[in-house]
Amino acid sequence: MSHLFTRLHEGGPVFMYPLLLILILTLILIAKAFLKKGDVEKIIRLISSISLFAIVFGFLGQIVGLIGAFDSLQRTGGNVDPSVFAGGLEISLLVPAFGMSVFLIGRLGIILLIWAQKKETL
Question: Is the separation of the CB atoms in 99 and 51 below 8 Å?
Fold first, then answer.
């Protein structure tokens, strides 16, 4: 569990913690839709919008991180150890990877909800 929070902090709390909250919200909405045996179309649309926001927010975090990294690289005149640069690139990939994970979880939830609705109507 501490590894998870270490990765969240490495990716940048400004982007990673809101994505964690979005993940929790997505899971709550999926559970709510499964428990609510009625019209879940509104919840499905909400999950769809939230998951799309998560992936775009993740890529925004990467762009902001890369801009900062390249600014630092420019200030040092390009004299950066390649291992330090590679570490920075690895960290810049954490935010979009987490955003994509949230997106995929949301989409999987939508698929399961639609499948459950289709099963009820058969």
Answer: no
Residue from 39, 28, 121, 66 nearest 20 by CA:
28
Residue type, 50: I
Report which residue type is found at 64. V
pLDDT of residue 117: 85
Identify the CA nearest to 106 among candidates 43, 58, 59, 61.
Answer: 43
Other beta carbons within 10 angstroms of residue 121's beta carbon come to: 5
Tokens representing 22 are: 């979005």
Residues 28 and 23: their CA atoms lie apart, in Å, by 9
Q: For residues 19 and 95, what is the distance between their CA atoms, to the nearest angstrom? A: 8
User: Does residue 55 carry a pLDDT above 80?
Assistant: yes
pTM of the model: 0.87
CB 58 within 8 A of CB 15: yes
Mean of pLDDT values over 17-35: 96
Cβ count near 103 (within 10 Å): 24
